[in-house]
Every structure is written in C-alpha cells, then in structure tokens.
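Format notes (please read before filing issues)

Several people have asked whether sequences and structure tokens are stored in separate files. They are not. Every record keeps both together, in the order shown below: the sequence lines, then the token lines. Line labels are part of the format and must not be stripped during preprocessing.
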Amino acid sequence: MSHDFIPPAKPIIGDEERRAVDAVLASGQLAQGTEVADFETEFAQVLLDGRAAVAVNSGTSGLHLGLLAAGIGPGDEVIVPSFTFAATANSVALTGATPVFADIDIESFTLDPASVESRITEKTAGIMPVHLYGHPFHVAAIGEVAARHGVKVFEDAAQAHGAAVNGRKVGTFGDFAMFSLYPTKNMTSGEGGMVSTGDPGVERRLRLLRNQGMERQYENELIGFNCRMTNIHAAIGRVQLTKVLAWTRTRQENAAFLDANLTGVKTPTVTEGYEHVYHQYTIRVPEGRDAFAKALKEEYNVGCGVYYPIPNHRLAPFQTADVLPMTEEAAQTVLSLPVHPSLSQNDLERIVEAVNALAKAGS
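Then the structure lines:
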C-alpha cells in the first residue's frame, strides 16, 4: 500500500526525555527521590491548580491506594461505570469492597447521574466516575447525588490530563483523583500514576501506603505496599509535563478538523462549559462497527481502537445481572480514530476520506 500506516496512538519520546533519564542514571539515585518530589510539585502546579499530588508506580495502584487512603474496605460498595477499563472496578475489589455498576449517558460515555442514584444502598460509601476518553463526567450532577446521600466522590481521571469543567481542572473535585501515566496516555512517565487530593490526611496515608507504611525508614505505621515511582520514570514525566498542554491543543485542533469534515457517523459530543482533551476521538458507527474497523485498516491503512467491547459487568470476575442498555449500545458501536499530536494534515485528510467513504458505502 502506498500510504504509511496511521497508528491509533503514538507516544512521543524525544531527546529531552533521553537526556533526563541519562542524568538520573549518571547520578546513581534511581529509586524514589528528588526527581519524584519535583515531578509531584510540578504536576500539581501545571494540572491541578496547586492541589497535592502523590506519584505511584501505575494508575491502577493510584486507584487502589486512593481508595484505601479514603477509608474504603470490606462491607463497602462503590458505584462505578461498567463501560471503562477494568482497572476501575478491579481497584474497588482489591480493597475488599464491592464495585456496583451503573449505566452511562451515551453522549458523553460517562456515568448517568440518575442511574448512579438508583444504585445507592445503605452500603454505598463512594462513587467513582471516569472522565472517559478525555471528556469530564457530569461533575455537578454526580456531586449533588453524592451530597444528598452522604457519600464520597473519587475521580478516575486516567485519560483526562488537563480537562476542565467551567475552567476548573479535573482532579480537583473528588476526595482523590487518579491520573495514569501509561505510554498511550496524553503524557507518560513510561509507566506510573499520579494521585491528587485536597485532604492532608488522605495525602499522608497515600504516601505511607506507597512506601511499605513508612514515612521514616523502619518506622512502619501501617501495612503498606511498594508502589513507589522511580526517579527514572519521574524524569520522563517532568519533561512530558512541559509539553502536554501544547499537545492537548493539537489534539483539540485535530478533533475540530474531524468534527467539521466527518459524515455518516456520530462524532463526539462536548458538554457546554467542558474542556475535552481527546485522549481518544470516539465516534459511533450505528451498524457493522467491527467490519468498519477492519476496513479502515485493510483498505485505508488507518488504525483505530475499540474501547471497550466487553462491559465490566459481563467480565468473568464481575458477572452480574445488571441491565445497562446505554453501556451495551456503546460497547457495540464505539470506534476511536487517531487524534494524537503526531498526525499530519495529510493524515487527517486520509482519515476523513476513509471514514466518509466507508460510512457512505454502509448507508
């Protein structure tokens, strides 16, 4: 095929990241240290309006430790979406609590506040919505439900670095929030996560839990884990942090081009007052989504992703009898197109040409 393959995602790692890692290697200080502390401070300043940030070794660890630090455990229920990556429900289960699945709003792909309220019981201790694909969840409505029932809100912001609601950054609304730093996210540290919180008690417990329960060596205060981030990973993250806002603007510009030119498919909805950071540009293909995805790659050499074809409530560890019609519809129709900052104008035009041709052929 004459056209180069357009990948659905493309991590950007350059000379600055390599030099930062080399400097850490030369220092001999490889484990958690000053690079991690500086990364936490800078992440808080750039993406959290100064709210405290605690670095960990993965996004899943961030969710798990955040829940533990917030007091979630056996006997509790935490309401989560089924339409997301399994780490959200996994982290609840790992605390000994029970994940309870609610349906989504099909336009934003995030938790439907009415469905959340219908799932609340006397055991509900928290709600953990996901800012899915980079679009914030219904912050005000979910907050109102939580306040009415006296439960906490935890933000899974794995895909939403820099997203905002009415100018306020995600990661600053819940008792804690988690950002993933996996290679395919809007910024990366190679592997890792960042947990934000406005509660000094939660922050201190997070720092203890990630480090074997210690603040000072050998003075263990509680049973903890080894979930520390290394200086190597933090050095990568610090460089990426200087670029992520510009990359986000490019993602938004790419999304605007796709919005203006795609036909025959349902393009992403952005709620008024919300800033979408387009971790994924997710369309809906009403019929024949899987064949559509196959043809994109085989006929046009355009990559795409299907996230998430099996809802969590139908996965083996969590199988329930929940009826979640919007979740099921999304799982059968969503398709994520390339929107990453490495796309050229020719790439964008080829994506439009391919999608429009396939949509027309299928109509």
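For reference, the curators noted about this record: The two ends are 26 Å apart (CA to CA). Residues 215 and 224 are 11 Å apart (CA to CA).
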